[in-house]
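Researcher: Next sequence.
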Amino acid sequence: MTIEVRFPDGSRRDVPSELRILHADSASEEPAFWHLPLNCDSYWRFAFDGVHWNARPRTGSLAMFRSPGIEWWRGIVTMSDEAALGQEQCLLVAVNA
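Model: Next structure:
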């Protein structure tokens, strides 16, 4: 499903969209749906001006994710490589016995 969006260069393009439910004010009212574009474009965000959807350039930048200095599982003895090697040796002895 798509919806028409106006872009700054004057063009109009169909972009992916969704139907979002609007919560009814009372239990007796039927639920209503709002047709809006998905904000899944890395270059554009979409704003409604009351009549049309308009594309606006996104601002800002992305930061690289930095992994923690020490992996969280290193402090757990049973998850260490040495413990795994010990378990493998125990399994070999049990199988050969």
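Model: The chain has a mean pLDDT of 78. Strands lie at 2-6, 12-22, 32-37, 44-48, 53-57.
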